[in-house]
Structures are given as C-alpha cells and as structure tokens.
Amino acid sequence: MNNNYDPIAPYYDVLSRLVYFRAQLKAQTDQLSYIPANSSILIAGGGTGWILEEIARIHPSGLDISYVEISGEMLRLSKKRDVKENTVTYIHAAAEDLEISITYDVVITAFLFDNFSMDKVSLVFQKFHSALKKEGLWLFSDFYYNEATGRRWQKYLLRMMYFFFRHISNVEASALINTEQHFQEQSYRSLKTASYYAGFIKAVVYQKS
C-alpha cells in the first residue's frame, strides 16, 4: 500500500524531532488557536495522534473530530491519546479514497500533500475543498521548496527524505508538489503564514471564501 507508515509508526515522532527538532510540531501547534469552539474538524494524515492532545489543551470539550489515517499502526497509537471530552471518530482510510458525506468547519492537513504525485494532489485537494464549509478554515502545513530561491541543502534533504520514505513506506511521490496554486484558484484567503526550519517548512491558515 502506498504512503503507509506502519513500519516506522512507533519511531516516527522521534525521527521527526531528530531531524527537524520541534519545527514540525511548532508549525502545527501555532495554528491551533484559530480553531473555533464547538466546531467540526477533519484531520487527515494525523500520524500518531499527538495533535489530538494539543487540540484538547485548547478545547477540552465541544469538538467533533473525524481523524483519518492510512496507517493502521498510527491509528492504534492515536486511539490511546487523551482527547478529554471531545468526540473523535477514527477512520482507517487513504485520503484519496475517503468518502465524505458531511461538511466541516475546519480541515487540518499536516505534512500530507508531500506524499502525493501531482494528479493525486489535485484529487485530494478537491475532496477536502468540497468538505469544507463556506468561510471554513484549512490549517495547512508542509515542507516547502522553491527551485529558484531554495537553498542547496534543502534540495538534498528532500532527495534523502523521498529516498528513505519510498523504501520504508512506499511513498508514491518523488518530488515536492507545492500547493499554493490550488488555494489561489479557489480564492482562499491567507489569515496567517509562518515559516520554520529556515523556510523549509511552511504553515498557512487559509479561509475558504
């Protein structure tokens, strides 16, 4: 199965912090204050679920969360998290195969789109775009690299990342597909943009128009 992190699920957070220190964590937690109380949230590719506990620190109750993860092992770890009084529905599915019958106030995708080829990026984006309510928020964070302005070490680090994850987790992508054009085409507003790890990580709070 493509993009399945089962083999490294127990070690994923440790590996992330060894390479990126707390940059990936901070890129996500800095956005959480934008989540409205009593909102419905779709989290896709949530990994080990630590983000659920961070969300619960801000909103210990009142949230209805759909938590989607392709890795069964990641999902198992996520179910052990303390979500306080929030309601969490755990869904074992690939983002591209997800059937969504409701709409959400908030969509969260953290380091998800870097797994996909260009065609899959468009497919997944449209799926989540349709699932987000008008004026809803999309908390987006991912790696960022621009060939014209990016640093050489970022280019080499990307190559190493894709080499490693292709062999360990069968990641289908071989290059990073930047997603700004998809949000621009749908006229999303950027409420907050922040960069981390010398610009190699970008986090944006988008609002659907």
TrEMBL record:
Q: Which domain of life is it from?
A: Bacteria
Gene3D superfamilies noted in UniProt = Vaccinia Virus protein VP39 (3.40.50.150)
Q: Which UniProt keywords apply?
A: Methyltransferase, Transferase
Q: Where does the signal sequence lie? A: none
Tell me yes or no: is Flavoprotein among this UniProt entry's keywords: no
Q: Name one GO biological process term.
A: methylation
Q: Which InterPro entries match?
A: Methyltransf_25, SAM-dependent_MTases_sf
Q: Name one GO molecular function term.
A: methyltransferase activity
Sequence ranges assigned to domain Methyltransferase in this UniProt record: 41-136
- Can you say what this protein is called? Methyltransferase domain-containing protein
Please name the source species. Answer: Pedobacter westerhofensis
**Lineage in the entry?**
Bacteria, Pseudomonadati, Bacteroidota, Sphingobacteriia, Sphingobacteriales
